[in-house]
Specification:
Layout lengths: L2 E6 L2 E6 L2 E10 L2 E6 L4 H4 L9 H18 L12 H16 L9 H18 L7 H5 L1 H12 L4 H13 L3 H9 L26 H15 L4 H13 L3 H4 L7 E3 L6 E5 L12 E4 L2 H16 L8 H15 L11 H15 L1 H8 L3 H8 L26
Antiparallel strand pairs: 1-2, 2-3, 3-4, 5-6, 6-7
Helix pairs in contact: 3-4, 4-6, 4-7, 6-7, 10-12, 10-13, 10-14, 14-15
Length: 395
Amino acid sequence: MAELKMISPGIQVRDGKRGKSIRYFAYVNGSRETATSRIPYSLAVNPRTHKPSKVLCDDYAAWVVSLHEKAGVSDEYGRRTPTIDELVETYELIANKRRCNPLFGKPGEKAIYTAVNNFKRCVSVSGLTGTRPVTELFNRDKVKEIFNALGRQMRAISAWSMIVSLKSVTASWTLEEYESRGFNVEPPRLPQKPIQANAPQYRMLTKELRDQIDAWYLALSKSNDETMYLAASMTYQLAVRPIDTGCLTAENFKVDPSDGRVHIIYRPHKTEMSSGRVVNWPVLPALWELIRHVAGDRLDAGKSLINSPRTTYGKLNRSMRDAVPALAYTNKAVYELRKLCVDTVRRTMGADYAVALSGDRRDTIDKYYSDPYTMVGVKPMAIGPMSGAQGVESA
């Protein structure tokens, strides 16, 4: 009698008189369906790990999808594979329900909006319609195809952010909700992340580039557009992201009795659900004068610091790219101001202060907002007692 050995859920190796072959099985509508794979054993199983190859996994997945389409359900519990439209609509419904639950509070409104829109963007370049089973969209070859298509329209890091949203709509907390609605959803298998899809590690700017940025900033201070200068100053002097600058009101500026200075106090939107830190940082007197001069009436009326921040920062990005040739192809040129601010604070005050100013975690600061590997002016010092050592060596 031929021996059957399970090598993956639904995939068995049959060792018979004529050699080894692959058997598939799956439960559909309460019945156990089986089939023999037409893929040769040499291509179906990795000879070193004895695990199913990608070719075999994809062929098995396609076979299961065909069963689902014929039967209208996906497993012995009567759950069926949703269509693409059904999945995204259900995700939006359950995500907003979870967001309003005080026990969870996340995903946030912006995270839901981003996930849904990125998901739809992936569908738009996939060549699939919303009535197709979502398994066709989540197929690994299809995901690679989507990534390559997006990569021809945008940078690799942006394309990767798009396809990660395919994964976000199948986060662990969603699966139970899908099951309760009669859906059987398997998370997509994303391809290996290309190195080009990683955000570049920060490197300290050259003096020439820093001088060009400062010259642009100084020229901006003398221009007629005071709102642009204020927006740039909030990011350059206080490392405030554009999205947060647009949300600041009078409630975010308070006099601290301990030092008598005006402090900016806010929780950065981007890290609200991660580090969750509240930024509390003193404002330069000159910057506070600028705030009162440009936006004083708005703040007094209970409005935000800057009206139409998207338009303002869009103009800033274009202006900065025009003035600094090295940033000509940078999508978010103004973010260099935030990086410069955080990096300067880290070098002059230390990493803990840079964390307090930015609201980000220490590892984020080290990788994306400062260059800890560029040692400037470091002198040898004795950490423990050493004969003849005087602590920090004098210059």
